[in-house]
Amino acid sequence: MESTPGHTPLIHGLPDEIALICLARVPRRFHNVLRCVSKRWRELLCSEEWHICRKRNNLDESWIYVICGETGIKCYVLAPDPSSRSLRVMHIIEPPCSGRRGVTIEALDKRLFLLGGCSWLNDATDEVYCYDASSNRWSTAAPMPTPRCYFVSASLNEKLYITGGVGLTDKSPNSWDIYDWATDSWCAHKNPMLTPDIVKFVALDEKLVTIHQAAWNRMYFAGIYDPLDRTWRGTENEIARCFSSPTVVVDGTLYMLEQKLGTTLMMWQKDTKEWVMLGRLSDKVTRPPCQLVAIGRKIYVIGRGLSVVTVDMDTAARVDGFLVTSSTGPLVEQDLSPDRSRVITI
Questions:
Q1: Where would I find the F-box domain in this sequence (predicted)?
Q2: pTM of the prediction?
Q3: Those residues with Cβ within 8 angstroms of residue 213's Cβ, 6 or more apart along the chain or in another chain
């Protein structure tokens, strides 16, 4: 940050390098206030330099975005609250496409993407909306090559992968659309080895685990897609047990919340290729159906009404088979159901 004639310093009397470090230490919940101070500060908070500085000094903060679609799309923004060791609602965002159904939500870096969708009056759309958490603004991104709604998606290595859904034509039943944020562009990709029955993506170990449901016997099986060489191969079907369960990856390890007989947190063992139980959670505090999301080494179980159960993977212990956790009651009055929501962090 070099000074030039007529240059306005970030903070009067301080070199911009020092001022940047000072401002970067302001907690994220006050960033909206910083944006209102001056145009220079607003531009700074939207810059890559700002994010690099916060990451380099371990000041980067992730918030949880719960996108509910029960009565129009609403996005509840939750942030860790050190005083309660849980989460609290920071604000509520209403996207431009709030009246749609079947919208798919993904995240890349500090950006939230709402893709496709449909309504009672309109067929599937190819529109894409992007929310930039740095500027707190919505914009439009490049439209998808294929209009879709109710489809499968994943984010991996700064790219979005989507497939399946309603709205496809007979020319594209097996198409994959891949979005690159760096160029704001899509490419359509078709691999004859892939079957059009994918029900879930899981980004794991720089690859996409694909969960399929066979049309002939309704059984579930799994495969692995390598984005580097664009090849697909079959894999152990045991991992496909997570086909309908919420999952989250923490430090390269896949976790699943099984909710068929109570609420149980499971972990995928890569060496033995099997799911192992970490511990049970009380339904009285989880309030299922639930979704999973992680910040750092903490897994948050989001239940009805945005109730929160926190599992610290560094300190979690079991007592009579139950995991020791902290929890808070519903954060909102509405009895929102997370099984019809998407929960991500940016």
A1: 14-54
A2: 0.90
A3: 197, 199, 219, 220, 243
